[in-house]
Amino acid sequence: DLGPPPYRFGDKVRKIVRGGALAPYVTVAFGGQRRRSTVGDGPDEAGHYVFNESVPFPLSDMEATPQTLAFEVRDHRRVRRLDLDDPVIGTASVAGDQLDSPEVQVLDLLDGSGVARGRLRVRLCWARERAA
């Protein structure tokens, strides 16, 4: 249930080659670190893309966690201009005080204008490294 990103040069070629299908991936940023998923599988019969990936961020026990976990869903483009990155479908974030919830969280993906572009389902967990 992802909406298309804003139109960009080269989209007509993409529609011809790939039938206009999205190729979404997720970037996750936390504590000055950034990770990227692979391109999601899908869409399935319900129109959902599935990433099903774990994204580890190493943290020490001494670090406070009031930081925000930021998500950005982008549409991968095989052909792009050097001055433009893959277009953003939508962004979402989880505040530090919500990071301890083990339940699946459904985040609204918003574009730069605040318009809903889809939803992202995430499950967060803290896995502490054990001392040897």
TrEMBL record:
What SUPFAM superfamilies does the annotation carry?
C2 domain (Calcium/lipid-binding domain, CaLB) (SSF49562)
C2 domain location: 1-109
Stored InterPro entries: C2_dom, C2_domain_sf
Recorded hits in Pfam families, A to Z, give:
C2
Q: What is this protein called?
A: C2 domain-containing protein
